[in-house]
């Protein structure tokens, strides 16, 4: 069966499953729409949380970043997994015990202020919309290749699917769908990785294959071969550190605390019956997440090696050294149709020169008559999806990866859109503007808000400010700088008051947004010509994606300082803060309220 037919069958079958689940799980009340009726088993909730968490950035883009950035991209693995531990240990159980199932509801109640609640909604929507843009980019990449259409058409197709099952099912439908999506995405990620690891190293475990010798009998280790292939062509060594240590540290920290402040993941801990179940589901989620995250480094390294070997087919400078234009493999031609892979024959020799810009290699390039890197576009986000094609795996594995990438993007997009719609309908409409709104009207408002968010995210996804994982990193920075500090202070600092919380959120969010737009610009806001987005211009070498950690420190400092200079919170609020940290069953412990 040809690839196109196989892809339609596999992807179509998964879509039919998701939509069937959404219709069967259609939310009939606000409790089912927001928290799935609090009846999800911890193991199943862990699986759904894993799917919610492992977005297009994890499935599609993270291995792509690792493939091209090597050692420096390890910060994504450390930050995202470390942040989940932080969330599970420091925030989730306490928020679940407190009983307010949205982050703005907790902040508004804890800081006894509708203004704090509204500011929290603004922070949540800003971070979540930015995050959804990354998912829409991933959806567009996957659909455009396997429907063989332009990126924008693929994105529109993905929006329609998200609309059907997220708007219909709410949290109940999304949870049940995400359980199925986890099974699809983890199978789709690991099976091709096992095949490629066997092909390259003879080791069936990709995690071990990454450190193994090549299966060609050369006695060379995979990473050593990859380093040599890159250095010989003027790229930096794969295993070398290229960025500054300070920036790597701050990016890791930003991703960690941004993870802990993500509202769509926090909401998942309200779908289980008890506080104890929230802890168990967090542990199971970490197990399910680790399966993909320990596989990603191998997928990235093997994808880069396969790409280099495809284009550089012989000795450098030899007549057969570079891929001929007319001999491009089918996978290359397929991805060219999407606009995400492009080359330009700059010296008109009928061959494709793909090399880096190191000073040591400049003389070699000049001697060969090369006029510049002719692979003018290799979108990082195509690497995971293209890797099985490059490795010439069976069509069913390629179709499976397509289904997995789409599942990862759809699952996280649905969770984020639910967080946005809950913030608008529950926290603004019912919590602030129309407190007497009945359940039916609130449910309608939620669905309208979600539909609007899908349209906005899709529109912005047409013009993303970077690769999927880079866009997501910006979203984590926004969550880190705005929501994480105030949630932490709300749980662990009874002296923090509403004035300090509001000032802290505005300071963290405002400073991070200014820094991002100053260097990156985007859409209708142009970056200043005085500060292009390069390490030489960043403040102390801190990239826009790393600045969230600095914004968080400013948030903490402002919130604590202003709280100490103004009146303390009311006595009942201070007692409430002390009570939520008392273990369940101990004297004075409060139950959900």
UniProtKB/TrEMBL annotation:
Broad class of where this protein is predominantly found: membrane
GO CC annotations on file: plasma membrane
Keywords on record: Cell membrane, Membrane, Transmembrane, Transmembrane helix, Transport
CDD domains: SLC5sbd_u4 (cd11480)
GO terms for MF: transmembrane transporter activity
UniProt xrefs under NCBIfam families: Na_symport_lg (TIGR03648)
Origin species: Candidatus Desulfatifera sulfidica
Taxon lineage: Bacteria, Pseudomonadati, Thermodesulfobacteriota, Desulfobulbia, Desulfobulbales
UniProt entry tagged with the keyword rRNA-binding: no
GO annotation terms (biological process): carboxylic acid transport
Residue spans crossing the bilayer: 6-23, 43-68, 74-95, 116-134, 146-167, 179-200, 248-270, 282-303, 396-420, 441-461, 467-492, 499-518, 538-562
Topology in membrane: Multi-pass membrane protein
Keyword Transmembrane part of the UniProt annotation: yes
Family, as annotated: Belongs to the sodium:solute symporter (SSF) (TC 2.A.21) family.
Top-level taxon in the UniProt lineage: Bacteria
Record's subcellular location: Membrane
Name the record gives this protein: Cation acetate symporter
């Amino acid at each position: 069966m040809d690839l196109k037919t196989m892809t339609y069958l596999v992807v179509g079958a998964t879509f039919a499953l998701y939509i069937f689940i959404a219709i069967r799980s259609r939310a009939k009340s606000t409790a089912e729409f927001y928290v799935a009726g609090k009846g999800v088993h911890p193991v199943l909730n862990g699986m759904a949380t894993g799917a919610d968490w492992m977005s297009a950035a994890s499935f599609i883009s993270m291995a792509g970043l690792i493939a091209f950035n090597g050692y420096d991209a390890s910060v994504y693995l450390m930050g995202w997994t470390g942040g989940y531990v932080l969330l599970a240990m420091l925030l989730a159980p306490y928020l679940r015990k407190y009983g307010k199932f949205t982050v703005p509801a907790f902040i508004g109640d804890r800081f006894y202020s509708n203004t704090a609640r509204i500011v929290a909604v603004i922070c949540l929507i800003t971070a979540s919309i930015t995050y959804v843009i990354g998912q829409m980019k991933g959806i567009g990449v996957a659909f455009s290749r396997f429907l063989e259409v332009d990126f924008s058409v693929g994105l529109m197709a993905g929006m329609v699917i998200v609309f059907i099952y997220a708007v219909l099912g709410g949290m109940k439908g999304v949870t049940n769908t995400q359980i199925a999506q986890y099974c699809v995405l983890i199978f789709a990620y690991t099976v091709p990785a096992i095949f490629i690891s066997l092909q390259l190293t003879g080791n069936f475990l990709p995690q071990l294959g990454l450190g193994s010798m090549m299966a060609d009998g050369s006695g060379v280790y995979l990473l050593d071969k990859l380093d040599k292939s890159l250095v010989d062509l003027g790229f930096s060594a794969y295993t070398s550190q290229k960025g500054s240590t300070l920036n790597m540290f701050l990016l890791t920290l930003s991703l960690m605390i941004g993870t802990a402040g993500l509202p769509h993941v926090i909401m998942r801990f309200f779908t289980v019956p008890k506080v104890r179940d929230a802890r168990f589901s967090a542990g199971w989620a970490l197990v399910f997440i680790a399966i993909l995250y320990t596989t990603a480094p191998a997928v990235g390294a093997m994808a880069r090696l396969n790409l280099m070997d495809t284009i550089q087919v012989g000795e450098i400078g030899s007549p057969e050294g570079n891929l001929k234009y007319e001999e491009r493999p089918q996978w290359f031609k397929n991805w060219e149709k999407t606009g995400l892979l492009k080359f330009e024959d700059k010296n008109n020799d009928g061959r494709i020169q793909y090399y880096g810009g190191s000073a040591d290699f400049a003389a070699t390039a000049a001697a060969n008559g090369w006029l510049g890197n002719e692979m003018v576009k290799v979108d990082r986000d195509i690497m995971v999806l293209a890797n099985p094609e490059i490795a010439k795996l069976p069509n069913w594995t390629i179709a499976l990866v397509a289904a997995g990438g789409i599942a990862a993007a759809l699952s996280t997009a649905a969770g984020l859109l639910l967080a946005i719609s809950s913030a608008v309908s529950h926290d603004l409409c019912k919590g602030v503007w129309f407190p007497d709104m009945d359940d039916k009207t609130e449910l309608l408002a939620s669905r309208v808000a979600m539909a609007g968010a899908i349209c906005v995210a899709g529109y912005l996804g047409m013009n993303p400010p970077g690769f999927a994982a880079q866009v997501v990193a910006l979203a984590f920075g926004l969550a880190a700088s705005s929501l994480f500090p105030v949630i932490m202070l709300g749980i662990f600092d009874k002296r923090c008051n509403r004035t300090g919380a509001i000032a802290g959120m505005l300071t963290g969010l405002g400073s991070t947004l200014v820094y991002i737009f100053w260097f990156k610009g985007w859409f209708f806001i142009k970056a200043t010509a005085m500060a292009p987005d390069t390490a030489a211009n960043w403040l102390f070498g801190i990239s826009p994606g790393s600045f969230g950690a600095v914004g968080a420190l400013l948030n903490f400092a402002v919130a604590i300082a202003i709280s100490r200079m103004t009146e303390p919170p009311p006595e009942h609020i201070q007692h409430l803060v002390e009570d939520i940290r008392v273990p369940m069953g101990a004297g004075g412990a409060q139950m959900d309220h």
